[in-house]
Amino acid sequence: MDSNQTIEEIELLVRSKRTVLYLVSQEENRVMSALESLCSKADTSWDLLKWDIVSGLHSTFPEFLPAKASDCVLDQEEILGWFKKLIVPKNKFCILVLKDYNKFFGSGNYRGQVEIKVVRQLKNLSFDFSTENKAIIILSSILELPLDLEKSVPVIDFPLPNKDEIADKITNLLDKASKRPDLAAKFQTSYSKDELDNVVNCFRGLTISECEQVCTYCMIKHTSLLPESIIQQKKDIIRKSGLLDWIDTRQI
To answer: Which residues contact 183 (CB under 8 A, 6 or more apart)?
Structure first.
């Protein structure tokens, strides 16, 4: 399933009254951009609200935001209470993205009163919103879902960028580099179809942000996008993540 299919799945789940979703991704900006595109579609007319514990409540759709900026500063309990009370007209729909909200579920087997209330409130809202035009998406880089919510909250993994998405990003970066005389003078910005295809394949398995970082690294250190350098950078990223082991097939 690619990112477009994943967004379609989210839309399908929301339309079928799955009102609290858990979305797993390390690419917060890419996910938010995809959700904003979904909400701005002409046939949806959905508004997207965003919340995190530092920035509070914010949105590019100001219609539903409190009038005072100070009223947007809400903690993990207050944001659920505020969203529960929010009245959304029948011709509208509102999605609230809670970033890193899994951090408020408690650690391990420990749950204090606040954590218990948070989990119970989410469970209540998953039922309450089935008759209202509202939904919640919990966005986190890892899956940490309490047993109490497993049956009522679908989990969706947002996929890494596919080959076409990586190609678009790399082509865009090369185009920008070609318009900078200082870079264009020392770095190769034009590649044949086969060369670019080989380069893009080397980037696969990385996030869009990591692709940009590795590409920028190559522009600074080398005179072209060297597959060996890209692979070495990818190897370092994978090793630091601690989630996977790098296997060099050339040594097998």
So the answer is: 177, 189, 219
The secondary element (H helix, E strand) that includes residue 173 is helix 163-178
CATH number of 3-157: 3.40.50
- What pLDDT sits at residue 247? 44
User: Which uninterrupted H or E stretch holds 182?
Assistant: helix 181-184
pLDDT at 110: 75
- Which pair of tokens denotes residue 64? 């539903």
CA atoms of 75 and 155, how far apart (whole Å): 24
The pLDDT of residue 2 is: 86
Nearest-angstrom CA–CA distance, 206 and 161: 8
Low-confidence ranges of the chain (pLDDT < 70): 42, 108, 241-252
pLDDT value for 141: 94
What's the CA gap between 4 and 8, in Å, rounded?
Answer: 6
Q: Give the 3-state secondary structure of residue 218.
A: helix
Q: What is the pTM of this model?
A: 0.87
In the block, residue with structure tokens 């996977």: 244
Q: What is the residue extent of each domain of the chain?
A: 3-157, 163-243
Q: What do you get for the CA distance between the two ends of the chain, in Å?
A: 30
Q: Which is nearest to 143 in space by CA: 154, 127, 129?
A: 154
